[in-house]
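#struct-pred
JK: can someone run the complex with UGT? inputs below
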Amino acid sequence: MNYDLLKEAMEFIHACYRELNKTDQEVENRLNEIDIQIRNQGFYEHTSIELEYGAKVAWRNSNRCIGRLFWDHLNVIDKRHLNTEEAIFDALIEHMEFATNKGRIRPTITIFSQKAANKKVRIWNHQLIRYAGYRTEQGILGDPDSLAFTEACINLGWEPKFGKFDILPLVIQINDNSPKMFEIPDNVPLEVPLRHPNYKWFEDLQLKWYAVPIISDMMLEIGGITYTAAPFNGWYMGTEIGSRNLADDYRYNLLPKIGSLMELDTKSNISLWKDRALVEMNTAVLHSFKEDGVSIVDHHTAAQQFKKFEEKELEMERPVTGNWTWLIPPLAPAATHIFHKRYNNEIIKPNYFHQPKPYK
Ligand code: HEM
Ligand SMILES: N/C(=N/c1cccc(CO[C@@H]2CCNC2)c1)c1cccs1
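RT: done, C-alpha cells with the ligand placed:
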C-alpha cells in the first residue's frame, strides 16, 4: 500500500471537495474508492471535476506567476486517454488553434496521461511554438536558448533552415520509446511582425514574435499524481518579449542595434541608452500585438491585476504565496506595488514543477 500517495490524495480531496461545496458523505465515498484503487493498482485516477479543479488551483499556487487573477478561467482539455504520438500531435495542434482563437487568446491546458498508468508522455519542446537556434562560424543564429533542443531535433532528422525565426518541430516521447518528431503546419502558429508607432525604421529590422506562449516541459502534480505532459498557455506580458527574449545579450541581443538606430550615444552608460532602447522595444511589442488584435498585457496592468488577485484571495481567506524575484517585471519594477512588499515563497500543491530535460 502506497501510504504517501494515499496521504497526498486525502489532502487533495478534502481541499477540493470543500472548495466545491461537496458533502462529507461524498468525500468519504470518494476516499474509499481511491483507497481501493491505490491498493489494487498502486495509483488512482482523477475525475474530470478533480482534474479541472487541480489544474486551476495549480495555477493559483504558482508563486512565480503575475497572471493569476484569471486562475478560475482556465480551459482544461482532458486527453488522458490518448496513447499514440500521432494522436498526441493532433491534440497539440487542436490546443494551438483553440488557444490562439485568431488572437483573442484563451488560457488553456491539455492534460495527457499520468506517469503511473505506464503511459509516461514527455513533450521535449520547452514551448510548443519556439524559434530554432544554430551555432555557425559567424556566431549564433536564431534563439540561443534553443541551441540544445535544435541540435536534438537535427539528430532526429530535422532539416535545419538556418533562419532567425524558424519554428521548431514537435518532439513527443511515450515511455522509453524513441521520440517521434512532427512538423507544425505553417498556417497554425500566429506570429506578430514588430513595428514601432513612431520609428519608421523599426519595421526594416524584420523582427517578429509568436503570439501564444505554450509551456510544454513542466509537470503538473495533483494529489500525489504526476502529469509529465500538460502544456499550458496564457498570453504574454510585453516585457517577456521586449525586455528579455529580444534584449538579453544571451538571447537576440538587439539593444545595441536599437540604440544606434535611435542615434543614442551607445558608448557611454550615463546616456542611459540601454534604458531608452528597452522602452522603445517594449513600446513596439505592445503596439504591434494590440494593432494585430493579439492578446498581450503591459507590466503595469499586469501588476494591477495581480494586486486584485491578492485582494480577492484575502477575501477568500486563502494565503497568497509568491516569488518576489520572479513577480517583479524586468522593466520599471519599482513602478509596481509588487517591488515594495514581501511575499511568502512557500510551495503549496497542486502546482506546476520543472522536471529533468528528457534529452542531453
Ligand atoms: C493569462 C495570462 C498569463 C500571464 C500574463 C502570465 C505571466 C507570467 C509571467 C510573466 C511569468 C514569468 C515568466 C518568466 O519570467 O520567464 C509567469 C510564470 C509562470 N506562470 Fe503565468 N501567466 C499567465 C497565465 C498562466 C497560466 C494559464 C498558467 C498555468 C496554467 C501559468 C503558470 C505559470 C507558471 C507555472 C510560471 C513559472 C514558470 C517557471 O517556473 O519557469 N501562467 N507567468
Ligand atoms: N506569459 C507566459 N510566460 C511564461 C510563463 C511560464 C514560463 C515562461 C518561460 O520561462 C522560461 C524559463 C525561465 N524563464 C524563461 C514564460 C506564459 C506561458 C504559459 C502560460 S503563461
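RT: quick notes.
The radius of gyration is 22 Å.
Residues 213, 215, 232-234, 236-237, 240 surround UGT (ligand 2) (CB under 6 Å).
JK: thanks, will look after standup
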